[in-house]
Design brief:
The chain has 298 residues and is of the alpha+beta class. Among the domains are: 2-72, Ubiquitin-like (UB roll), CATH 3.10.20; 156-280. The chain has helices at residues 20-34, 53-57, 74-92, 98-111, 113-121, 123-133, 140-155, 157-162, 165-176, 178-183, 187-209, 217-239, 243-267, 288-297, and strands at 2-5, 8-9, 36-43, 46-47, 66-73. It is globular, with a radius of gyration of 22 Å. The chain starts with a strand and ends with a helix.
Length: 298
């Protein structure tokens, strides 16, 4: 059996795979590490459609001579999903839609692949969309602005990251006095600090998720694992209102690691090109101007 990915023959040795489904499970793991996803495939020249996937996956490896696989970068899937989501929001917010029309939009959203993609990869953001469309909670305009921001992260990550410099340095100063605010009963200041830090950290990690090949070896992997552990401990301490532990972690662990993360991003030299993603091929709909118009429309 021969396997082609985007027209290129794949040199692979099958091990314990017995079915096409087994093979795809292995390939999906490998593809996810390179920032791509399988979006279509054919068996012996026959394109497999959504309703035929289960049957195709049960086909034995020995019964197939050739598999053709088409892939799309996660970044482009993400961008396509954001644009589709913006369309749902603008349709839902239309003054002449009517209740029946809104029900149809909600049904289409619930059945869309974009919703599944967002819940799989960005569950917090997906829930915001669900709250607005399904439960009529939240602010459509703010959601439109967030979509525009996320599109800019894809099309111009360098600008998106560099624009965060002032916020990053500002939040590190505020983290250093978190313990004092908690001890003095300044709950509002403490809550705002933790919330703003969460937003900043989420944005940084969101961009990193789009460039898996940029991570530079064991040292970087260890850094992320350690930082993730520190963040879990920090949020747990804050939720438990342990001002001493939360303050120490914020000042001596979280703050310096946040600065180091930002510096590492710059050192990877990926701020102008998401590795594994061809952003130059995006059409005009992905431009900053279009992103701004989405925000205004919502």
């Amino acid at each position: 059996m021969t396997i082609y990915i985007d027209g290129n023959a794949l040199d692979v040795t099958l091990e314990n795979e017995q079915t096409v489904g087994d093979l795809f499970a292995s390939l999906e793991t490998w593809l996810s590490q390179t920032g791509f996803r399988c979006t279509a495939f054919a068996l012996d020249g026959k394109n497999i459609h959504a309703g035929e996937v289960e049957k195709a996956f049960s086909t034995g490896i020995d019964d197939v001579a050739r598999i053709d696989i088409q892939t799309t970068s996660v970044a482009q899937l993400y961008a396509d999903t954001l644009l589709d989501t913006a369309f749902f929001l603008t349709q839902y917010s239309g003054v002449d839609t009517g209740e029946n029309g809104k029900d149809e939009i909600v049904r289409a959203w619930n059945e869309s692949g974009g919703r599944s993609f967002l819940f799989e990869n960005y569950p917090g953001f997906a829930k915001k969309i669900d709250d607005y469309l399904v439960r009529e909670q939240g602010d459509g305009a703010k959601l439109g602005e967030e979509i525009a921001e996320r599109l800019r992260e894809i099309t111009d990550p360098k600008a998106a990251l560099l624009s965060m410099k002032e916020k990053i340095y500002g939040i590190t100063v505020r983290l250093e006095v978190l313990s004092l605010n908690m001890q003095m009963g300044k709950d509002r200041e403490a809550t705002e600090t933790v919330y703003d830090f969460s937003e900043i950290a989420e944005k940084l990690f969101r961009i990193i998720q789009l460039m898996p090949l940029a991570v530079g070896g064991t040292e970087d992997v260890n850094f992320f694992e350690e930082f993730t552990g520190v963040l879990k401990e920090f949020f747990h301490a804050y939720q438990a209102q342990d001002s001493v532990l939360a303050g120490d972690l914020a000042e001596y662990e979280v703050s310096p690691r946040l600065l180091e993360l930002y510096d590492r991003l710059k050192e990877w030299n990926v701020l102008s090109d998401l590795t594994g993603t061809d952003t130059s091929g995006f059409d005009a709909a992905f431009s900053s101007a279009a992103a701004e118009s989405i925000a205004k429309a919502c």
